[in-house]
């Protein structure tokens, strides 16, 4: 049994009825879970936990691995938890590449489809495979990705306290993109942007 997240915004309706209140700025949400599924190995789980060894022990970086190819898709899940911020869009950013970047396979523009998938609770990436991935329910966006790109989906409603889950998939055989997304920089990666809805 999965318990719902409790609301921490009791009584906020009265605050947001104040016409003198300034609208809050957009919120950029880092994905809470990211997993890779491979159609050529449908039962295999690809668990990726970036880390490095230090004198204090193993340090886990919090980065998320994104990889899409003709055989592989990436499932990314976000938590839209903020009150009164129920106008959402999905944004993908890839800045001009430098010699130290860990982005692979982007020599040619990549055609990518972004699908909404049916996942009402948090996905467990330790059990995520091609066979077990949540089903697609609708196309959210279609992007052409290349360096120095910012791509956005059309705006959609994201209920406060809900998971928003998407699958990134290649279109055609000439598509390949792989990198690690860090939580503290917007130079590359996928973000859920919440804007005020009050």
Provide mean pLDDT, rounded: 84
Helix/strand order, N-terminal first: HEEEEEEEEEEEEEE
Through-space gap between termini: 33 Å
Radius of gyration: 18 Å
Low-confidence stretches: none
Strand content: 35-45%
Structural class: mainly beta
Number of helices: 1
Structural account:
- By secondary structure, the chain is an all-beta fold.
- The chain is built from 1 helix and 14 strands.
- It has one helix at residues 12-16; strands at residues 27-29, 33-38, 51-54, 57-60, 64-68, 72-80, 87-94, 110-117, 136-145, 149-152, 156-157, 162-170, 177-181, 188-195.
- The strands form 4 sheets. Strands 1, 7, 10, 11 and 14 form a 5-stranded antiparallel sheet that branches. Strands 2-6-12-8-9 form a 5-stranded antiparallel sheet, with no helix packed on it.
- It is globular and about 55 Å long.
- The mean pLDDT is 84.
What brief labels describe this structure?
single chain; 198 residues; mainly beta; five-stranded antiparallel beta sheet
């Amino acid at each position: 049994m999965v318990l719902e997240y409790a609301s921490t915004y009791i009584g906020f309706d009265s605050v947001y009825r104040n016409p003198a209140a300034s609208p809050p700025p957009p919120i950029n949400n880092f994905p809470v879970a990211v997993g890779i599924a491979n159609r050529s190995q449908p039962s295999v789980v690809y668990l990726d936990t970036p880390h490095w060894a230090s004198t204090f022990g193993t340090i886990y970086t919090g980065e998320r691995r994104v990889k899409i190819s003709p055989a592989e898709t990436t499932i990314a899940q976000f938590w839209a938890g903020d009150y009164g911020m129920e106008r959402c869009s999905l944004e993908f950013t890839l800045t001009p590449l430098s010699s130290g970047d860990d982005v692979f396979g982007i020599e040619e523009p990549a055609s990518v489809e972004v699908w909404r998938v049916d996942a009402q609770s948090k996905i467990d990436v330790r059990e995520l495979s091609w066979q077990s991935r949540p089903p697609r329910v609708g196309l959210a966006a279609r992007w052409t990705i290349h360096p120095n790109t910012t791509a956005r989906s059309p705006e959609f409603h994201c209920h406060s306290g809900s998971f928003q889950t998407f699958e990134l998939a290649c279109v055609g055989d000439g598509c390949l993109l792989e990198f690690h997304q860090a939580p503290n920089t917007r130079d590359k990666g996928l973000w859920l942007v919440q804007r005020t809805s009050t």
